[in-house]
Amino acid sequence: PLTMASDSPESLMRLCTDYCLRNLEGTLCYLLDNQTLRLHPDIFLPSEICDKLVNEYVELVKTDSIFEPHESFFTLFSDPRSTRLARIHLREQIVQDQDLEAIRKQDLVELYLTNCEKLTAKSLQTLVSFSHTLISLSLFGCCNIFYEEENPGGCEDDCLVNPTRQVLVKDFTFEGFSRLRFLNLGRLMEGVNVESLLRPLASLAALDLSGIQLGDVGFLTQWKDTLVSLVLYNMDLSEEHIQAITQLHKLRHLDISRDHLSSYYKFKLTRRVLTLFVEHLANLSSLDISGHTMLENCTIPSMEEKMGQTSIEPAKSSIAPFRGLKRPLQFLGLFETSLCRLTHIPAYKVSGDKNEEQVLNAIEAYTEHRPEITSRAINLLFDIARIERCSQLLRALQLVITALKCHKDDKNIQVTGSAALFYLTNSEYRTEQSVRLRRQVIQVVLNGMEAYQEVTVQRNCCLTLCNFSIPEELEFQYRRVNELLLSILNQSRQDESIQRIAVHLCNALVCQVDNDHKEAVGKMGFVMTMLKLIQKKLADKTCDQVMEFSWSALWNITDETPDNCEMFLNYSGMKLFLECLKEFPEKQELHRNMLGLLGNVAEVRELRPQLMTAQFIGVFSNLLESKADGIEVSYNACGVLSHIMFDGPEAWSICEPQREEVVKRMWAAIQSWDINSRRNINYRSFEPILRLLPQGISPVSQHWATWALYNLVSVYSDKYCPLLIKEGGIPLLKDMIKMASARQETKEMA
């Protein structure tokens, strides 16, 4: 089943390719004079490997923000004696004229250039180098490839301002491209004479003229015996176009679809036109008429339409002209037409907006070259995922991921895609998703967050991340996700809801992770960012989730991480603590989080002198009597003081309050707690508590530590008994029982 297939690991080929591309210097190449990549002289690679290296490189540059492109990458493939290229797919800004120039000696069979806007007419000349071998060529969206720079004769005034201007190349044709069969000229710039450009091609099999307006397509009939696929998406048609198309009797795939929002089209589809297609194009197996308005009713009477089981048999077709088909079509594009809602449609695959299957077919068919249509189809999928249950979850997820990767810079797709991902990754679908698939989701979500500072995308992406187990599932992108969240929180103007989600995620990310992770995040400015948020909330006199989460995050990130504790003190953390305490005396959650954090600070011996002021000690002593959040605030205040007492009377550098008085209040507090209290705290290690046992300088600290251990192993024995044994607590307790300085009640508890 599909569920298992997607869990298989990446192929060894893919892993090796990826590794080599990320470590070119350490594997295939060396650096010449510290800047130019050169292939090691003993390396010889066949096209099966070179094609993958180039295509994967383009994919990495496009979808992985950490991956650094190399200026001289394409020069590695300049010599066919050591590296062979045959089939390559290049996209967008990644490719420039000099890159194609670098590989001109290769015998390319297939070259797809998609939306490569930086290519100019220089690359047209380079294409001629491949003319004797090229079978398949796409120049889709390469909108400058027919322009060259021309220096105006004689330097006039504007010579300095605009030394070059763009001129259209008129004399280029596909003369000499004797093997060329498949050609995509989609979105070609206006002014190029398509007819004379194509005339030299002897036997075209597939032609894509998407988005080009041609008044006369009669010249297409010169390939009536060879053309099997014709795409005229968004071309305004006329009766003459239809006449020419019906003469192309070998056609198997015909696409005359359009984006009904893009501009006004005079042409309307009629029953007669569809009938002509069926009668004249006997081999037709795929037809796309999406976005068309039907001038007349092509459907059979509704009584007959509703009868019987849904059928794809042409004889039962609800669309009358298709009753003449000899067999059902493999594909029928009916997206954004009324026909897709009929009962009997004679095709195995239909794109439309009637149900999940049709919508997924639309996303699949249009993602590559039609983002404007795809974003509307994904929007329909979003509604399905939100309101009903998706029955083809894996397919839906894969398609949305592909669309988001393919159109990283298309705002509409990023908005609708990120919203759909939120619903497709929520808990009810969890069991159907593999680790690999969920990682792909995380990658595209982070790409979206990086590329778009736009509120909707950021919110959707943050919400989607909340569907994952944190930190476990985000571990493989730990640094990147933290950097992104911190950059969101550091923006001067912030959306309240995004701020709340981002702080929640930050908190979850530093909870229960290794100390080196916490240190790394601390160095990114985590502590500073949280304190700034707290400062802002204080100024507004608001204690909301953001305030509580920020203190909670600081509590987590300072746990057993002295560097972060020091940062907290250096950035006026104690001042904020006192101000929050004063401003929000009733907020129990807040008090607990703040004191938990100060407990972490107090565990660091070098930092304790900074807590030794009359003001701080007075505040901690008063909090011993607090009943906030059960025993938690009182317990944490006592913990802070226990570490301070452990430094002995000579470290007590203040006159008021006196050490003995505070000790007395600590004993009273501990005796007032219920030993069976359920706790709102999570210990990863007992080390900071255990170090208070083998000492005689502060019996009250010893007692607090023993009480803490006794409470935790009694109430949560399954979790904490093994931890106590593992960390060597038993011999420490036994030794303490023999100590003369320990109090009797402490020994009994031990």
Please supply descriptive tags for the structure shown above.
750 residues; elongated; disordered N terminus; Leucine-rich Repeat Variant; two-stranded antiparallel ribbon; alpha/beta; 10-stranded parallel sheet
What does it look like?
This is Protein zer-1 homolog. There is one protein chain. This protein is α/β, with parallel strands linked by helices. It contains 32 helices and 14 strands. Among the domains are: about 120 residues, no CATH class; about 140 residues, Leucine-rich Repeat Variant (Alpha Horseshoe); about 140 residues, Leucine-rich Repeat Variant, CATH 1.25.10. The strands form three sheets. The chain has a ten-stranded parallel β-sheet with strand order 3-4-5-8-9-10-11-12-13-14. A two-stranded antiparallel ribbon has the order 1-2. A two-stranded antiparallel ribbon has the order 6-7. Helix 12 runs parallel beside helix 14, helix 13 packs antiparallel against helix 14 and helix 27 runs parallel beside helix 29. The longest helix has 17 residues. The protein is elongated and about 105 Å long. The N terminus is likely disordered.
CATH class of the domain at 469-608: Mainly Alpha
In total, how many beta strands? 14
**Mean pLDDT across every amino acid position:** 91
Low-confidence segments, given as residue ranges, are: 1-5, 158-163
Helix content, binned percent: 40-55%
> What best-fitting shape do the alpha-carbon axes yield?
elongated
First-last Cα distance: 57 Å
**Would you tell me which CATH topology of the domain at 469-608 applies?**
Leucine-rich Repeat Variant
Structural class label: alpha/beta
Biggest beta-sheet profile:
10 strands, parallel
The CATH architecture of the domain at 469-608: Alpha Horseshoe
Classified in CATH, the superfamily of the domain at 469-608 is Leucine-rich Repeat Variant
Instruction: Count the DSSP helices.
Output: 32
Beta content: 5-15%
